[in-house]
Amino acid sequence: DIQMTQSPSTLSAYIGDRVTITCRASQSISDSLAWYQQKPGKAPVLLIYRASNLESGVPSRFSGSGSGTDFTLTISSLQPDDFATYYCQRYKDYPYTFGQGTNLEIK
Amino acid sequence: QLQLQGSGPGLVKPSETLSLTCTVSGGSISSSTHYWGWVRQPPGKGLEWIGHIYYTGTTYYNPSLKSRVSISVDTSKNQFSLRLSSVAAADAAIYYCARHGIYFPFDSWAPGTLVTVSS
After folding, report:
1. Residues 70-99, chain A, touching B (beta carbon < 8 A)
2. Is the sign of the CA dihedral A70, B103, A58, B3 positive or negative?
């Protein structure tokens, strides 16, 4: 099975910072990569699909890039509402696999 | 607006079968462009895809759970269901039902149902 590895596991940053989270697939998944945001006690929310496409309603400070095995999620200027856990997910081919998550904390 | 709501017992005994149902409102489960799936999350841990079903009954399961999991659909009730047999403590988790498009990730989720495994 293809494994998805996120880094870092925890990230501390200030309001206004630009942050990047990385997701690496153990073999090529083309652009079948999604990013989700999850807040405590809530279901995940889709942010990015097909590696770089912004889901409707998601603020433009979120962006995604990459293809093949290496992907990134970037938040251009952190807002208070952005502190959460972020997951990447491989989809389209089975089994669907999530990364282990990145906890974005306020510094 | 599409809404999903999971329901079912919050407590299951070890070795018994976990059964959850997801009710879809604001849209049809018979959509030709969507699958209906289950994802779980042990407390404090990450997300695990369990499997999903198409309205015709076609299913896809995570190989790690395939021997114990069954997902079914009832189009007349706009519902789909999860059954996980022989549960153990490791199956304790928040169980989410969710929708995803064909070749598209999960774009609509239910709030989640906490299932505890204990005698």
Report:
1. 87, 89, 91-92, 94-99
2. negative
